[in-house]
Amino acid sequence: MSLRVLVVEDDRELRSMMRSTLAVEGFEVQTAVSVSEARALLRHATPDVILLDLGLPDGDGSELVREVRRQHSLPILIVSARHQEAEKIKLLDAGADDYLTKPFNVGELLARIRVALRHRGTALAAGETTHEVGDLHVDLNEHLVEVKGEPVHLTPTEFKLLARLVRSAGKVVTHRQLLADVWGSEFTEHTHYLRLYMGQLRAKIEEDPAEPRHLLTETGVGYRLAAA
Ligand code: CA
Prior knowledge:
Elements (H helix, E strand, L loop, with lengths): L3 E5 L3 H13 L3 E5 L2 H10 L4 E4 L2 E2 L2 E2 H11 L4 E5 L4 H10 L3 E4 L4 H15 L9 E4 L2 E4 L4 E4 L2 E2 L4 H12 L4 E3 H8 L8 H15 L9 E4 L3 E4 L3
Parallel strand pairs: 1-2, 1-3, 3-6, 6-7
Antiparallel strand pairs: 4-5, 8-9, 9-10, 10-11, 12-14, 13-14
Helix pairs in contact: 6-8
The protein binds calcium ion (CA).
């Protein structure tokens, strides 16, 4: 059975590009051009993933994030031209899984969909426990981190931070989420901890810490462990 994706996008050209791209990949594609049309479609059937534009003719896509999240756990990917970091954080906190900033390329879109589906799928609560990308190999159960086949020693906090990112590999994790999960909910404003520890992790894991390939910065929002 093919996966169903709902594309909510009022830009005709972009909508048809997304429709054909996703259809080629084997998705069953439904499209809506407005908040109200998306609502109507969602009343009849629940898709497996929603790609959601924010600026829609009859309202803002963010309204839909909250509405959908009240009833469903399906992945919601924001596809938007907007760049405000505060807004991205708000959407992620409201229950969106990730965001893509226009213009994006097709490979990026498909990769984000795959990541979101995987995280919302069977391993919903547990997350990933191993991570193998390029020269980096992490096995959380074995407490093992290797770069180019050589073991890397991490401090307990560095390991917790990396483990949190491995469990959400490919997805953005906000500063607040990282601080709460690694240091505790009373530390969510201490973003300087993150800068410090991310610097240490990069020094140990990245070939060139100034041009990280694994531990990516999402400016003003959080960090993302590259999934491929
Ligand atoms: Ca729009």
